[in-house]
Sequence to fold (218 residues):
Amino acid sequence: MLIAKGIHKSYGSLHVLKGVDLEITESEIVSIVGSSGAGKSTLLHILGTLDQPDQGELTMQGKNLMTLKGDSLADFRNQQIGFIFQFHNLLPEFTAQENIQIPGYILGTSSEALQKKSGELAEILGISHRLDHKPSTLSGGEQQRVAVARALINNPSVVFADEPSGNLDTANAKGLHELFFKLRSELKQAFVIVTHNEELAGMADRKVVMQDGLIVSS
Ligand SMILES: Nc1ncnc2c1ncn2[C@@H]1O[C@H](COP(=O)(O)OP(=O)(O)OP(=O)(O)O)[C@@H](O)[C@H]1O
Ligand SMILES: [Mg+2]
Fold:
């Protein structure tokens, strides 16, 4: 489903990614671990088309992502890729449900369909009773589950998560990790998760270890 080959990235004279090869298959959960500065977030941003490699090939669902630019790249990203970050980045002036639906509005999905889909996701994620609330009145764990629902609203091929539980206490982190596996079994959702959490990394189907800009085991 996703194939990255020979990915290189430098920031000035700093060679951050030194030829990364990675394949992700349908409904697979892959964790990426490695010490700080190894290049995990840089790789995730490139796989998620938020950043461009200096060299390498990237294909998703058979499409060569290196040839997509501007609006067509943004459309592809909005349809095929979901993101979950350490800090949820929810919009404070909108309710949980509105936040979940925003990527769907951008895609042009009808509000009826979005209402239905956000309701279903909220049900799976256990936040149905909090949908009318603004983010500031939700707990950290609830906010992060809203961010997960938002990442899933357009049925992406893959969700990229960068330290999604990094800002949660142990119980909420565990709850979030269990949800990833529930979403995979119920929606066949693929996840690529950068984490410093050894327990989560170990739960994944595959653990990719990065060291100094390279994958050293997977
Ligand atoms: N936009 C940028 N400009 C310059 N240097 C950058 C930029 N982004 C990342 N770097 C550098 O690239 C290296 C890899 O950064 P990256 O964020 O990918 O690491 P990481 O593995 O995600 O680390 P952490 O576990 O701390 O999040 C670091 O040395 C970082 O300082
Ligand atoms: Mg990082």
Q: What stands out?
A: The chain has a mean pLDDT of 95.
